Amino acid sequence: xxxxxxxxxxxxxxxxxxxxxxxxxxxxxxxxxxxxxxxxxxxxxxxxxxxxxxxxxxxxxxxxxxxxxxxxxxxxxxxxxxxxxxxxxxxxxxxxxxxxxxxxxxxxxxxxxxxxxxxxxxxxxxxxxxxxxxxxxxxxxxxxxxxxxxxxxxxxxxxxxxxxxxxxxxxxxxxxxxxxxxxxxxxxxxxxxxxxxxxxxxxxxxxxxxxxxxxxxxxxxxxxxxxxxxxxxxxxxxxxxxxxxxxxxxxxxxxxxxxxxxxxxxxxxxx
Amino acid sequence: xxxxxxxxxxxxxxxxxxxxxxxxxxxxxxxxxxxxxxxxxxxxxxxxxxxxxxxxxxxxxxxxxxxxxxxxxxxxxxxxxxxxxxxxxxxxxxxxxxxxxxxxxxxxxxxxxxxxxxxxxxxxxxxxxxxxxxxxxxxxxxxxxxxxxxxxxxxxxxxxxxxxxxxxxxxxxxxxxxxxxxxxxxxxxxxxxxxxxxxxxxxxxxxxxxxxxxxxxxxxxxxxxxxxxxxxxxxxxxxxxxxxxx
Lengths: 271, 246
What we know:
Chain A has helices spanning 10-27, 36-56, 66-93, 95-98, 106-133, 145-169, 172-187, 194-200, 202-209, 212-224, 232-235, 244-264, 267-270. Chain A has 271 residues and is an all-alpha fold.
């Protein structure tokens, strides 16, 4: 029983389920529209960006279904931001609990990322409905999307473990991350097509695409919406370099969980 | 009473590094490092505690404020990691360092019972078995569908207390969790604790000498992070009171 904390261990799964359920119940507590906000929020953000970038700035005119293309990118990005920011706070906000009860700490981080994942699933449903309404024809590549979601989840969970553990001793990390996230939003081709960068400099475009988030978002767009979307697989020639995003995700998840496990013994004293 | 060991503490040591005021902030931290000043003071809270608790025993741990009782309890519960030494537990251990930990005011009484159960490591089936019993003991059947924020403080502690004492663990660890609520409910709690003698392994930290004399089968006095005495509750309670005479 004192061995590795194991997610497949039944009691841990029950605790995870209870925490996620509590979080979901409390999320829209007291709001009139309730769970509807989970769908309304990304749609409203999409509307703003659509008006600004498509109507006024006229970006992405040559990409088919650009509206859905944009929405898919935003929804994946939002999941990344939500899961890392909430995962980072998961340990700190439960500090009182950690000092009084002994339970596997990683469940707190996992539960906050799973909550974000549920929210994300709802949003993804919105994307698919929009895509079909927009005349996107489903192809076999739709079947690859779950793999990309898994990759995105692995990346977010890894960072949540890392920041969650650091945040116990060094609270500045949450402010630093807020700024970094803002900067990254523009470094990832979410609201602009990567071809715009490629026209100016092919090398910069390649480097941008090696960011796992960019790789995932472009792959999702390719698989789900249009095969005209530029992906790291088609744009970067070297077959080893192309694997960098995936290697990064696996490395981050592995190192971060090891770090978290090492630190989690002392959370009760330090938080 | 059988002499089977339920819990064994081997030479437990624990120290805390308490940061000094001067170490707050990045500038001072860097300066101190250059000057070779330690940014913290070391406080040894436990200096080698070893004891055994047998199955069915009701062990009372007493001692002055700051003697290390609560730290010891947290080590036993696995909340803290010892500097040196180890804790062996034979069976499942349920600890209540405080009542109502993890309670959420926005959830109903029923939901809170299940959430607490999950935090303590009980499965859903185990909780379903215990649920009726917990609610019965707390005398709160009509209120279980109400949100906790609408409970009176008496109702709140009764629910928390009932979870604590009705949780079916092999070893129950309690920190100052004694009679709560009004006179009638307190009497019920006292009766319950008395009835536990011999059937349930309990480790209780308390300042209440009446409780030690009435409920405990054995008591342990901690002073300055060491065991100052262990044995018959009456005798240890006397020793504890002696501490305050000089």
